[in-house]
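Lab notes, practical 5.
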Amino acid sequence: MELHAPPPGPRQPEGCLTVAIRVPLRIVVLVLVVPVRMAWDALVVAGRLVRDAVLRPLGRALLWTGKALFVRPFAGLWRYVLVPAGRALAWLGAVLVVVPAVWFHRYVLTPVGHGLARLARGVGDGLAWVYARVLRPIGHAVARLVRCLFVVPARWLYAWILAPVGRAVAWCARGLGRLLRMIATGIGLALYWTLRVLFVLPALALWRWVLAPAGRLLAVVAREAGDALGHAWRIAGRISRAVGRVLGTLFRWIFVEPVRRAYRTVLVPVGHAVRAAVLKPAAAGARVVGRAVREALTSARETVRQTRADVRRMLFGEPRQPVAVDRREPQGPAARTLGSSTTALTKD
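Output from the prediction step:
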């Protein structure tokens, strides 16, 4: 099922001021944008050519050089030097540090820790007995004395003196606060209406009757300028593409076609003639020479092998021939039978 885009909404009616601004603005912007767009397209084509012809090969060469000069040496250094050295250092550390530390912890620190723990438990038990038998009774007595001498008088002083005085002071403060709030409210209302009449109403009138119409006019001009710039940029792109096609066609007619015709009519026949007259005979001669050289090398290797064998026979004699051993099963009556317990190997 195909999905269709919703139809565009009805275009809002435009005033004569918008149309009067749009036409000359688009003409001026088009005249100014066409050279910029053509220069931009020329720069884009030149940049692509530089990227494909210079920067990419240079980047590949730099990448290969970087790998050859840095990556591979560092990889070899890491694999064949640092990793074995690290393993050796780890083994030495384990032998010289870890094993003695484990032994010291197991046979020295652990017994000393157990002894200190027992001593601390004994001291803790003694302190607990002192706290339960001595410090706790003294604390209870001091607390009762403090309660009788300070807490009870202070509570009576707060309940019968400080609390009534505080309530009276709070009532006076609330009354004073209400009075000050009423005075501040009156002053604030007076300042509000004064500022509204002197500043706010003139500012609203200025915004409504001066700044808002000027802003709308500037918004129309800016919108039309943006639309004109986009329209001119698109038209300039079409003009630039047309000029580019014309220049490409001229370049093809002036340079590419003559070079291609010269290549087809001159260089290709000359290359075929050179290949038939020079390269093929040279290749056949090279194959014949290579075949002769290979045969000569083969015969030389055979001669050297025979000479070495003759020298070995003259110095050490003929090699001892292995004695043939008959490993077949015995035949006839000496063979093993199924009905007899005597075999051919144990029978006399």
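Observations recorded by the TA: The chain has one domain: 17-309. The radius of gyration is 56 Å.
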